[in-house]
Amino acid sequence: MTTTRIVTGHDSSGSSTIISSGSLAGAEEFTHSPGFSAAVVWQTSPVPDIADRPKLSEHPARSVIPAPGGTTALLVTFPPDSLFASPDFDPAAAAGELCERLPGLGELFEADNPGFHRTDSIDYGIVLEGEITLELDQQSHHLRQGDIVVQGGTRHAWRNPGSKPARLLFVLVGANRPERSG
């Protein structure tokens, strides 16, 4: 599915206008993870300025994980898990591609527990299409189109046991992780 990103702003006289409209770069399928896609829709700094016109690029500059107070919007399509059971699936190549296309996030995935990761962010996840399962340390929850998840830096993984892709929009708000005592 092609997604168009429309960005509004102001012209020189202060009138609202469309400053950019076009295909969402980076939304194409990953090469080594068939059916999976993840595109950065937009990122903001910890104290964004409405007048800022960030460079629109396919890849984030340093990390998709925002600094505390910053934000990242991600559009992610999860294919059915069965696609990863193919004998042609190469987990090492898939992990490398994830790190390349989603810097700062790909490195957080656990090698011994595929799919599990934790970010220093508050995440709002909205199921746009399909169904998906959120796995946590001790439980899981099945989500359907229209469901919204709010995660506070929890260790988790996404699983799609169904036969159709699931498409989610995530908004990550960078946060500080408190130090654990004792």
From TrEMBL:
Database matches in Pfam families: Cupin_2
Region (Disordered) residue ranges read: 1-20
Q: What residues does the Cupin type-2 domain cover?
A: 116-171
CDD domains associated with the record? cupin_BLL6423-like
Q: Name the InterPro entries on file.
A: Cupin_2, OryJ/VirC-like, RmlC-like_jellyroll, RmlC_Cupin_sf
What is this protein's name? Answer: Cupin domain-containing protein
